[in-house]
Hints:
By secondary structure, this protein is α/β, with parallel strands linked by helices. 49% of the residues lie in helices and 13% in strands. Strand 1 (56-60), helix 3 (65-74) and strand 2 (79-82) form a beta-alpha-beta unit.
Amino acid sequence: MMGLNTLKQLLEVRLSFNELKLSHLAKGAMKVAPFLLSAILFVKLILYFIEVFMQKILLTGSSGFIGKYLTKELDLRYELYHLKSDLRDYKKVRQEVLSFDPQIIVHLAARTEVESSFYEQITFSEINYVGSVNLIEAAKDCTDLQMFLAASTMETYGWQSISDIVKSGVEINPPEYWAFNEDTPQNPLAPYAVAKVGMEKYLEYASRAYGLPFAAIRTTNCFGRWDNNFFVTESIISQMVSSKEISLGYKDPYRNFIFIDDLIRLYKTLISSPQAAVAGKFYCCGPNNPIKIEHYTDKIAKILDWTGTINWDTRPHRPGEIYYLSSTNDKVNFYLDWQPRVSLEDGLKKTIALWKDK
């Protein structure tokens, strides 16, 4: 199905063509066909409707995992613009942002491979923090900005006392009891997370100093990729569907997981209600379904009927390993009446199907 932005581009080309034809007809002193004038007026009317009545959204990171899915959903309902400039180039970012002058900015662009951030600290800081600062600085000068919606991360919670308890080998029961919420102190334990906390603090500063309306989602581990096996869910699945022996990292940490369909629905919910979203500012998305990576791997193996060998502790040691991450979604449910719908098992089955079809 054609998106509004594609339609607009085609109409603009058609309008230019018709106006060029009209110019040539006039120069040749020929009679202008009434239908040509009507076509030009009709195209101009549609373009006016798109400009005036369709909400303008600027999206960063549209080529990424979440961005690809979100683009498909937004392109049919909004006038959507994809930022092209390198976030680290302030002048170009500012020029693009103010030229489009959006009402909503959705900021997804970032380096997200937590493990890699321990070895590429400068690059992660430049993109995830400085790049975000550049975008925020440009955004505050938009004429009618209703919301700056940023992708943050649950990794910002970092170290908590429960992490040390799990690391010591103590079984926690029930694991849901320890879930974090928006008031849990942030103690980032990776350069990636430090940069995200910095972005959040800069948003708060811009809100206090300039009245910048913002909201941020502290995203849970999201899965459902079909083209990237770096992250834990896809790493497990991609190895199991192709081999009887797989290699993984730590087996003891707890994580919670959200399927991509639910996360996209959350973004759409916030975008459709910017005033309500801005009122709450920071949101965890849950679901509160923490599971030990060892048991998570067993769950995937059971769905696949896989009985191979697992080699644990094959990844490099992470100096800031976190042994427990899980969050609730009570706040976003209260403010925006949203909660996850896809069960962990159903999400895994859908992801497995993607990898089997490759």
